[in-house]
Amino acid sequence: MPTSPRERARDACPGVLTTHPAADGALARLRLPGGRLTAAAAKTLAGCAREFADGHLELTSRANVQLRGLADGTAEELAARVSAVGLLPSTTHERVRNIVGSPLSGRGEAGCRDIAPVVAELDRRLCADPALAALPGRLLFAVDDGSGDLAGLPADLALRALPSGEMLLAVAGATRALRLPVHVAVPALLAATAWRIAELPGGPGGQDGLLAAAATEAGVVGIVQAAGIAQAAGSATVRAGAWPGPHPQRDGRRALTVLVPLGRLSADQLDLLTAAAAAGGGDGAGGAGDAEDGVLVVTPWRSVVLRDLDPAEATRWSRAAADAGLVVDPASSWVGVTSCAGRPGCARALADVRRDAAVSVRIRADDPSAPTHPAGRPRALPPVPVGPALAPVHWSGCERRCGQPGGRVVEVVATGSGYRIRRTGLGAAAVASVGADGGEATVVSSSPVDGHRDLAAAVRSARRLA
Fold first, then answer.
1. Sign of the torsion formed by the C-alpha atoms of 197, 202, 206 and 207
2. Are both 333 and 466 inside the same structural domain?
């Protein structure tokens, strides 16, 4: 696998067996292909969070989970416990199992295929090939059920189900995609990892050539010649995993999306969601015990989806989640707000961004004139108050901007003396400026009251889409 020494040196993505030495203790990251987490595994993680870490799980922008503040000497026992519940099927490939999947696959009204078996096959084949252990830990796979809910994610390689029964294979940066039969989609996808994407010559043309080479290696030359190279997948439609609240399933039951503020889920909150998942039952997609335990689905929008709930159960668990400090209201001020760890967990951070983001959200929640989220919501959701739509916002403790979502976003980056607010992919900014520096909005937040109010107002202004 042609990765350069420089690439390998900076590829420091942590796992369970290779933790990251953060300022608040070791950090371990567990990959959840498709975001799928059985109730048994969730119970184990809650126990590990209490016993070994800081009492929380963090949800990542790749639908993985991580434990912070691990005590010295606990890594070996942590690895043993997560292995026992199926969360570490490969010691050699643990860091490359970054696979996001449509959270309502097989249940949502917009999808055209249950992609759970495709995700499972991809994970199995990925771990079975020794050469693929050399893939960089930042490589991201996506498997979309045809709803388009993952189209906005920065996946390096993606499969998308088509109404025809085929699948579309796309490579980041390529101008076209391959239309393939589903039974060869995963082999073709893995063939596309033969070359490092970043090292392909010729830009998009080289990536189109990669797709053709992948099809050849997968033995589908005739299919490509007959069907041609298809158009790339369209834009995202309904992203049920990003919108808190209940969503209808095809069978009349409900899925409940629970947003976790800043992705930080306490062990007690996880216990609550695990109990709710058990009420919904299993999905039949995985190992023994599914039908009894139930399954939670972690999403790249730092939410958890509970599926197969009766309407009355969905209402009951929605209330319980809200009482526990989780978000089930699509009009919540927390929708679209993410952050890195910040101080004190990260030595590089210049501010406690989680605190400042939370204060900013609370200030906006108390402001009756604050904008809400009426645009782009799923049709099944109840109406929300009228007001301008808001762009997502990501708070970062330094210029590395860890965990920032791709696409259109408002960046709030700590500078040491305040924050710089910048709109990325959103056109010209109209941001209130306090202590402007170099023409970019910098808001000093040294005052616990006035500074945070100015900061909240500036962020709110930057997020307006209409």
1. positive
2. yes
Identify the CA nearest to 172 among candidates 138, 147, 218, 123: 138
- Contacts of residues 446-450 at CB distance under 8 Å and 24 or more positions apart, as own/partner, are 446/418
Task: Report which residue type is found at 63.
Answer: A
Looking at 328, 348, 382, the residue that finishes a domain is: 328
Residue-wise pLDDT tens digits, 38-49: 999 999 999 999
DSSP 216: H
pTM for the model stands at 0.85
* Residue 141 resides in a domain: no
* Separation CA 180–CA 224 (nearest Å): 7
* Final residue of a structural domain among 302, 328, 354: 328
Q: Comparing C-alpha atoms, which of 425, 434, 427 is closest to residue 459? A: 434
CA distance 146 to 160: 6
Nearest-5° Cα angle at 286, 282 to 287:
95
Give the percent of the chain with pLDDT over 90: 53
- Whether the pLDDT of residue 384 is over 60: the answer is no
* Total count of domains within the chain: 2
Q: Which residue range forms the structural domain that includes residue 291?
A: 1-89+239-328
User: Rounded to an integer, what is the distance from CA 126 to the centroid of its chain?
Assistant: 20
The DSSP output letter for 29 is E
Residue with tokens 């420089």: 6
Nearest Cα residue to 250 out of 209, 307, 320, 291: 307
Using CA of residue 397, residue 399, residue 400, residue 405, what is the dihedral sign? positive
Cis status, amide bond into 344, omega within 30 of 0: yes
Burial 252-286 (b: 16+ CB within 10 A, else e): ebbbbbbbbbbbbbbbebbbbbbbbbbbbbbbebb
DSSP state of 383: P
Q: How many angstroms separate the CA atoms of 169 and 455, rounded? A: 43
Predicted confidence (pLDDT) per residue in 83-138, tens digit: 999 999 999 999 999 999 999 999 988 899 999 999 999 999 999 999 899 898 99
What whole-number distance in Å separates Cα of residue 48 and Cα of residue 174? 42
- Identify the helix (H) or strand (E) that includes residue 204: helix 204-217
For residues 265 and 271, what is the distance between their CA atoms, to the nearest angstrom?
10
